[in-house]
Design goal:
Order of helices and strands: EEHEE
Structural class: alpha+beta
Oligomer: single chain
Helix content: 10-25%
Distance between the termini: 39 Å
Number of strands: 4
Strand content: 35-45%
Shape: elongated
Radius of gyration: 16 Å
């Protein structure tokens, strides 16, 4: 049996992530799929944009090299 309630509106967002080791020309591109709850497609899009802005960061890989991660 399937249940449907108006407040249970979910959207799938596919995010393209670029990871780049400092000093290299070729980035690694990944596609992340996330599930968002929102009241409309526009609200889901805004949530995805906010998530992308807050998740960009730089970290060190296992070789100690800085890696920047940004969402495209």
């Amino acid at each position: 049996m399937a249940y449907h309630r108006p407040e249970w509106i979910w959207y799938v967002a596919q995010l393209v992530v670029e990871s780049r080791v400092d000093g290299t020309d070729k980035p690694l591109l990944l596609i992340e799929s996330i599930l968002l709850r929102a009241t409309s497609p526009e609200a889901a899009y805004k949530k995805a944009q906010d998530l992308c802005r807050s998740a960009e960061h730089v970290y060190r890989n296992k070789f100690g090299e800085p890696v920047s991660q940004r969402y495209l």
